[in-house]
Amino acid sequence: MYPLYYAIIIVLSVIALISTIVIAKNMDKSENQLSPEEDLQHLKSDKNDQGSIPLLSAIYAVTFVITVILVWIFIF
Prior knowledge:
Elements: H1 2-32, H2 36-45, H3 53-75
Helix pairs in contact: 1-3
């Protein structure tokens, strides 16, 4: 049963890593397509834009919660 827990944690961590890399690549592509003037206008107009922080926070919160649950099951 314990190898199953290890496999779940490893798969979940790999999914979180891959999703982080995909988000970073998407942000990098969007930043490279803007000219300096467009980038300045974008920064001025989107003061409340948090970018990918909420999505990354959700990904790692879910990963952390599932890992804690599996460790708790493993210990008890």
